[in-house]
Amino acid sequence: DQMDDFAREVGQPNAFGLVGGAPNLPGPGRRPLSSMSPTIVFEGDRPVMCAGAAGGSRIITATEQVLLFSLLFGDTAGEAMARRRVHHQAVPNTLYYEAGTDEAMVAALAARGHEVSELDHSAVVQAIRIVYGEDGSVAQIQAASDPRKGGRPAGR
């Protein structure tokens, strides 16, 4: 982590808008604010997906959206990674969306009273999805690197 993850002052937001308390001030035994959320998803005793991201307070929502689009909606890891994202972290009370997000959805959210604003950048996610065959063997391993960063998985 970097020093910005520590609170500079109790109640004052850092560069990502996160507000820390006394335990987040720099000092011995203190912990920085962190949105790190490396994730491994299991179905029973088998791993089906792992993901992690960089990008401050946007890490959690970016990771969650990639996992949801892949595991619940059937996207490949790469398709889930390429989708437009939204982000909300409570403070500030603003729903952020990426350029290219469906305009009708953004307008509908604004009409319901949400404060909306276009994101200047999102977190970047890396993920691996394991697809199993009917016999339980590994049928496919999908590795994906976020196109927002320009990376790609090794071996491609």
Helix content: 10-25%
**CATH homologous superfamily of the largest domain?**
Gamma-glutamyltranspeptidase, small (S) subunit
Low-pLDDT segments: none
Summing up helix and strand content along with how strands pair, one would put the structural category as alpha+beta
Number of structurally distinct domains? 2
- CATH topology of the largest domain, by name, is Glutamine Phosphoribosylpyrophosphate, subunit 1, domain 1
Please outline the major beta sheet: 4 strands, antiparallel
Task: Describe the overall structure.
- The model has no long low-confidence stretch (mean pLDDT 91).
- Strands 1-2-6-7 form a four-stranded antiparallel beta sheet. The protein has a three-stranded mixed beta sheet with strand order 3-4-5, with helices on one face.
- A hairpin with a 2-residue loop joins strand 1 (39-43) and strand 2 (46-54).
- By secondary structure, it is of the alpha+beta class.
- The longest helix is centred in the middle third of the chain and has 13 residues, at 59-71.
- The radius of gyration is 18 Å and the shape is globular.
- The two termini are 30 Å apart.
- 18% of the residues lie in helices and 25% in strands.
- The protein has helices at residues 59-71, 77-82, 103-111, and strands spanning 39-43, 46-54, 86-87, 95-97, 116-118, 124-132, 138-145.
- The chain has two domains: 1-33, no CATH class; 34-145, Gamma-glutamyltranspeptidase, small (S) subunit (Glutamine Phosphoribosylpyrophosphate, subunit 1, domain 1), CATH 3.60.20.
